Structure formats: C-alpha cells, structure tokens
C-alpha cells in the first residue's frame, strides 16, 4: 500500500469533514449536559443514568455516522470532482479504505467527548466511575467502524448520497421498533440487525439489565458482549468487502 | 509516447456507444478527437483513463495495457467531462492534494504550482475553490491536470465554459506543451482544432470515420471551404471513403 496517496486521501477527507466534526462535538456536549441536568432533576439512579448515557451514545453513533459517511462511497461517482480523482493512477481500494478510516477518525472526537462528559457527569452525580466504561468505549469504537462501513457500502451502490443517508438514519432511528417487533412481539432475538449489536454499548454499562427483559417493550433482548462483537464484526467484514469491491469496479 | 486503441467495443444500457474503434497516436504534438455530441468521444476518454471499462478490445498507453491502470496511467494526466475542484479546499490545498495522490514530492509540487500560477494566471492560491467563477474553477482543474507534468495529456473540451481571453491563454499553453508532449484533444471548436492539431480523428455513432493530417482532411473533405465544412460533410455522411 502506498503511504503518500493513502495519507493524502485521508487528510483531504478529514478536511472536508471538519465543519461537521466541530458541529457534532458541540452537539454531543450539549446532549450530555442536558441529560445530566435531567438526571439531577429526575433523580435518576446510577443504573438508569448509565443505561441512558449508553443509549445516547448508541443513537449518536448512528446519527453522526450516517451524516459523516453518507458521501464517502458515492460522491466520487455522483459529483464532478470524481472524474479528476478516479482517473489518477491510484488503487481505488486504497482511496475507499482511506476515506472510511478518515470518517472513523472524524468520529473519534465527538465520541471521546461524549464519553468523557458522561463519565465526568456520572462521577460528579454519583461519586462512582460508570460500570464497564472502557469495555463500552471499545465496543462503541468497533460499532462506529462497522456502521461507517455499512453506510459507505450502501453509498457505493447508490446513485447519490440521499440513499445511504436515509438508510443510515432510518436504521438508527427505527431500530427500537425493530427490537420491539422481533423481541417482544415475535420472541426472536434480532441478531441479524447491526444496531442490535451496538446495543451492548449501553447494556454493559449497567448491572441491572439482563439478556432477556420481559418487562421491557423496546429492549426485550439485550445482546451478550460476544454476541454483539460477532454481529458487529460480521457487518464490518461484509460491508467493507461491498465498499471495496463496488468502489473498485464501478464505472462513471 | 503512444496511445493504441484496438477494436474497442462499449455498450451502455444495451446501446452500442463504441463500435470496434481502433486508432494509434504517437510521438509529440496535438491530435484532435472530434465528433458530434453522443458520438463516443467522452466514452473513449473514460476508457483510456479507467473511468469506464471496455466490453472488449485492447487499450495500451506507452505499450502498457490499461487493465493495469496504475502503471498505464502513471505518465498520463487527463481532463474528462467537466470536473470541478472541491469547494471546501483552497486552490493550493487542491493542487497539493492532486500532487499527493500522485506521490509527488512537496518540493516538486511547490515548483509546479509556482510555474502554473504564472502560466494560468491563477487566482489567489489561498482562495476557496467554492467561491471561484466557472472560468477560474476551470483554470484550477487545468492546473491540476498539468501539475504532474506527464508526457501524455488527454483533454476533453478543455476550453469549455471559458471566455475568449481565458480560452486563448489555455490554447497558448497547449501549443507550448504540444511541442514536447502528446496531447489527445477533444473539441467542438474547429478554429481551435485547426490552430492546434497536427492530426485529427473523427468519430461518429461510435465509429471512426476519418483519421489523418488536419490539412489533408480539410482538403479532402472540405473541398476548399475549410475544416468546419470538412467536419460537417464527414458527420453528415457526405464523405467518400
């Protein structure tokens, strides 16, 4: 792999995303601050606080990931600059992989900020470090990469960025209804669904949630860590392969 | 310096766009690639630059099959379609980006930018590309194409959208470059073709209908009424081959 073109694409992608990085980082801080204020007012316990923080992180990964990576797989084919970029003597696999990694890197700042703000708020409110915070952060990193690959993969086979954007947002926002329909109503664990894997981010931050929660309509099933990792890694492998193959073969 | 196209066939959505075209161009100088809209000019350029794949046939650049595009395109720089620079980058950032893609050293990129800034009268290099006029964006794109200083240039309507003064500047530069390099130039402007091109290839309905010295094509098909008339006679089917 040639380092210079790889770094060039990586840096350029980061540069193109810079305003979104700042916006989403600020939004993350506001969300955690607002949520912490609600926790004080609503007199949440430590477990509720941790679980809700995990859910905020989980949904923010979906929202930010959809926005940052919606263009990654498709813009070179739908916008005019692509004609200049893709006619260069550079391996297309290298271009798409550098762009995916740049999106991942771009998401690190809001993700770190949201964890740091959440952990600080938790410590200030309850005097304890949130349970399994480091493991949750690790899973969130993997989930982020997998989600970006998923949206990018959709982008590489789409005509314009609205398709990957709407698929990413829909999957993130309607995930809880999928959980409810398959879990509570049909009694089927939604192991086939990427956001279900991401649910472990929240699930492991609290000691009160079990694998099956009969009283919970939306989160009837919560994945084990190993289950979450398998789902996330399978999605990552499939959609990285889709991204690389489709981006390499696609014609303008 | 050589471009060789042999029996290339290309269909898009079941429509035959290139019908077994073949041509060879070599040496230095500018070769015009002419034809009406939809004739297959841009498709040929896309196949030459790995933006599209031929259904069958063979394309070689300097003897290297374009299936190995990373090697074949090393000495080629191209302007296909009407690309634009990234709006969110400054002119300098965009040119450095292109230099980086092609693994050019920072020093070489700086040198080339300074030459091109002068030759193409580029705007303030720290200006964002998004705020540039269409003509200035086109200059930036041409600067990006010329930046790697390759031996072969593929230019699809490079003066498209430029005002006469801007077009004159580009033609002046192409004339200078054409003395040392091989340029395949697509254009609808016959005056431009006559002024710049040593040879011309005419394509219509996906087939090459004429290839030869500019003057001899003008003489043979224009019957004393100039290159434009020669071109019109050719594409209107009034030629005798």
UniProtKB/TrEMBL annotation, chain A:
Keywords: Membrane, Transmembrane, Transmembrane helix. One of its GO terms (cellular component) is plasma membrane. The keyword Transmembrane applies. It holds the Pfam family ABC2_membrane_2. GO terms for molecular function: ABC-type transporter activity. The chain crosses the membrane at residues 21-40, 52-74, 94-117, 129-153, 165-186, 192-212, 224-247. It comes from the Archaea. This is ABC-2 type transporter. It comes from Candidatus Parvarchaeum acidophilus ARMAN-5.
UniProtKB/TrEMBL annotation, chain B:
InterPro entries: AAA+_ATPase, ABC_transporter-like_ATP-bd, ABC_transporter-like_CS, ABC_transporter_ATP-binding, P-loop_NTPase. It comes from Candidatus Parvarchaeum acidophilus ARMAN-5. Residues 3-230 form the ABC transporter domain. One of its GO terms (molecular function) is ATP binding. Belongs to the ABC transporter superfamily. Pfam families: ABC_tran. This is ABC transporter related protein. Keywords: ATP-binding, Nucleotide-binding, Transport.
């Amino acid at each position: 792999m040639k380092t210079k073109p790889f770094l060039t694409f990586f840096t350029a992608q980061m540069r193109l995303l810079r305003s979104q990085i700042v916006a989403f980082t600020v939004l993350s801080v506001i969300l955690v601050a607002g949520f912490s204020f609600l926790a004080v007012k609503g007199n949440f316990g430590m477990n509720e606080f941790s679980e809700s923080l995990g859910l905020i992180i989980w949904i923010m990964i979906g929202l930010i990931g959809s926005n940052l990576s919606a263009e990654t797989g498709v813009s070179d084919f739908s916008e005019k600059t692509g004609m200049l970029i893709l006619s260069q003597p550079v391996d297309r696999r290298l271009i798409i992989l550098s762009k995916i990694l740049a999106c991942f890197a771009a998401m690190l700042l809001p993700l770190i900020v949201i964890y740091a703000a959440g952990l600080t708020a938790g410590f200030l409110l309850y005097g304890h470090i949130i349970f399994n915070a480091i493991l949750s952060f690790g899973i969130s990193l993997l989930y982020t990469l997998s989600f970006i690959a998923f949206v990018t993969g959709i982008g590489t086979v789409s005509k314009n960025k609205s398709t990957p954007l709407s698929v990413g947002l829909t999957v993130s926002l309607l995930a809880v209804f999928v959980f409810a329909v398959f879990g509570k109503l049909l009694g089927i664990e939604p192991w086939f669904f990427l956001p279900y894997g991401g649910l472990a981010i929240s699930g492991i931050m609290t000691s009160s949630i079990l694998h099956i929660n009969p009283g919970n309509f939306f989160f009837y099933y919560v994945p084990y860590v190993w289950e979450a990792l398998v789902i996330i890694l399978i999605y990552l492998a499939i959609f990285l392969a889709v991204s690389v193959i489709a981006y390499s073969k696609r014609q303008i | 310096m050589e471009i060789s196209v042999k029996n290339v066939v290309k269909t898009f959505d079941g429509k035959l766009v290139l019908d077994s075209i073949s041509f060879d161009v070599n040496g230095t100088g500018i070769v015009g690639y002419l034809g009406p809209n939809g004739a297959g000019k841009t498709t040929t350029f896309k196949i030459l630059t790995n933006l599209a794949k031929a259904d069958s046939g063979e394309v070689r650049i300097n003897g290297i099959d374009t299936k190995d595009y990373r090697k074949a395109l090393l000495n080629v720089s191209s302007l296909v379609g009407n690309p634009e620079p990234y709006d969110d980058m400054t002119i300098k950032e965009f040119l450095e980006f292109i230099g980086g893609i092609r693994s050019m050293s920072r020093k070489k990129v700086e040198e080339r930018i300074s030459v091109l800034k002068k030759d193409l009268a580029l705007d303030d290099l720290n200006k964002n590309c998004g705020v540039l006029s269409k003509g200035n964006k086109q200059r930036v794109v041409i600067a990006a194409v010329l930046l790697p200083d390759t031996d072969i240039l593929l230019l699809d309507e490079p003066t498209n959208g430029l005002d006469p003064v801007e077009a004159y500047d580009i033609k002046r530069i192409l004339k200078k470059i054409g003395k040392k390099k091989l340029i395949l130039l697509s254009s609808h402007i016959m005056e431009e073709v006559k002024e710049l091109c040593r040879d011309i290839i005419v394509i219509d309905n996906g087939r090459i209908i004429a290839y030869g010295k500019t003057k001899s094509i003008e003489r043979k098909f224009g019957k004393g009424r100039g290159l434009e008339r020669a071109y019109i006679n050719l594409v209107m089917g009034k030629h005798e081959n």
